[in-house]
Amino acid sequence: MVLRNTLVPCRYLGRRKAPASEGGRYRERAVANYYLLKTEPSEYSFADLMKDRETRWDGVANPTAVMHMRAMKVGDRLVIYETGNVKSAVGTAAVVSADAKDPKNPVVKIKAGAALGRVISLEEIKKEKIFKESPLVKIGRLSVVPLTKEQYAFLVGKE
């Protein structure tokens, strides 16, 4: 997996401030960022992604979701969330290429990971304190949601 160097901090993108022993300056470190991608299973389900193994993730219209798409880099880890009647996190994926040349329509190619050990419903997510301030809970229509490392670990079952 390729990780990218990033400057720190940022609330949802897995970054942190340098310790005081380093003069409180920002420092670079290699991290993978984490995102949740929502999909309507009747249009393109996680099962479709598993069958295809890779796909282009594009066509995102919401300006905030587009901003998150532009921020994606190779190696970022993803949770696939099915909307509609399912409303649950169902699997994982990873970013294998990212093209943000067109700032209004970034294209990210993702590779299927694995199905989650158990499906995690939106109701269960809302009960967890770590999601209290998450855009997943606060902005329900957002199709690309940044996750913290702790949120990602909870969803993939590595608490």
Describe this structure in words.
This protein is α+β, with helices and mostly antiparallel strands and 159 residues long. The protein has one domain: ph1033 like fold (Roll), CATH 3.10.590. 21% of the residues lie in helices and 35% in strands. The protein has helices at residues 46-52, 63-71, 122-127, 135-138, 149-156; strands at 4-7, 28-31, 34-39, 54-57, 77-82, 88-99, 107-121, 144-147. The strands form 2 sheets. A 6-stranded mixed β-sheet has the order 4-7-6-5-3-8. Strands 1-2 form a two-stranded antiparallel ribbon. Mean pLDDT is 85; it is low at 1-29.
Could you outline the blueprint of secondary structure elements for this entry?
Blueprint (H helix, E strand, L loop, with lengths): L3 E4 L20 E4 L2 E6 L6 H7 L1 E4 L5 H9 L5 E6 L5 E12 L7 E15 H6 L7 H4 L5 E4 L1 H8 L3
